[in-house]
Design goal:
heterodimer, A: mainly alpha, 2 helices, B: 181 residues, mainly alpha, 76% helix, 0% strand
């Protein structure tokens, strides 16, 4: 029993000693020379590429926005012109209709007068 | 949670502060120095992309550890798949090239310290991750469980098994080393 305990104790001590050595052996290694510069250079490249992409996206977005604005203005103008033309057309039609109504009334009037004249002429002839 | 006053800090400052931690984690996870540098660079660049989401220095440290361990595991799996499909020669060649990138000053290191990456590389991936976080990063088993998103009991068992296996392999290596000197 005692032998077993002593054995376990020795084993524990050996393990602790190995762990101590392992901690020393596992100190962090220095990074390779120039690694930091290489990382920073790659990060710079990436940022530049990203900036380039961002710039391109901004330009495309700005172009799309301008195209939308100008297109909108053009469409708005066209719609306005069409509305104006339609209004003018309606006005012209109204004028024609008014003219036709006046003509119609005048013709009716003339027709009545002619009918009256014909009646009076016919009566005079009958009386003679 | 409130952000610290001068937050977020300059990216360069963060790289300076964390590069050795990220690189060491990646190296001990993959066992390949060249691959570790590539991974470390990728992880730090990802930090740059996600800098706006970082809330504190602790959050950065936690995030870097988690992403490095996961990226390293992914890289190892890809490497194993490629090695299986291409044959091992390509990887032997690549590893030699990576190792030749820069000689390491080993003059004041212990024999265990000199071979620790190789010894770690022989361990199963999950045990390796737990051991690196425990002995390099000095994390508690609870913190390791959170970082690896594993149950605490699993992490404790991985630590125990990994330590036992590493100790056995280290003893073998040290015996060879003593015979060789």
């Amino acid at each position: 029993m005692e032998h077993r305990e002593i054995g376990e104790q020795e084993n524990g001590q050996e393990l602790a000693e190995f762990e101590r050595k392992l901690r020393i052996a596992m100190q962090r290694r220095e990074a390779p020379l120039g690694m930091k510069q290489r990382v920073l250079a790659r990060a710079r490249e990436r940022r530049q590429a990203q900036h380039g992409r961002w710039w391109m996206v901004q330009r495309i977005a700005a172009s799309a926005l301008l195209a939308t604005i100008f297109g909108g203005i053009a469409v708005y103008k066209q719609v306005q012109e069409r509305a104006l033309e339609r209004k003018r057309g309606e006005e012209a039609r109204d004028q024609v209709m008014t003219a036709l109504r006046i003509t119609h009334k005048t013709l009716d009037h003339v027709n009545e007068r002619l009918a009256d004249n014909s009646k009076s002429t016919l009566g005079f002839q009958t009386f003679r | 949670m409130r952000k610290p006053l001068n937050w977020p800090p300059d990216f360069e400052q963060l790289v300076e502060e964390h590069q050795s931690m990220v690189f060491s984690l990646a190296w001990r996870m993959t066992g390949d120095r060249g691959l570790a540098e590539e991974l470390a660079q990728d992880v730090l660049l990802e930090l740059d992309r996600n800098l706006a989401r970082m809330k504190s220095p602790e959050h950065v440290r936690f995030w870097l550890r988690q992403v490095t361990v996961h990226r390293s595991a992914d890289a190892l799996r890809r490497k194993q798949t490629k090695a299986a499909s291409l044959g091992t020669d390509v990887w032997v060649e690549l590893e030699e090239r990576h190792v030749l990138v820069e000689p390491i000053d080993e003059s004041d290191e212990s024999p265990l310290g000199r071979r620790i990456e190789d010894l770690m590389a022989g361990l199963p991936e999950s045990q390796r991750a737990a051991l690196v976080l425990r002995y390099q990063e000095e994390l508690t088993p609870e913190e390791i469980a959170v970082t690896l998103q594993s149950p605490l009991a699993t992490v404790k068992s991985q630590l125990q098994r990994g330590l036992k296996l590493l100790r056995a392999r280290a003893n073998e290596y040290l015996k060879e080393y003593v015979r060789g000197t």
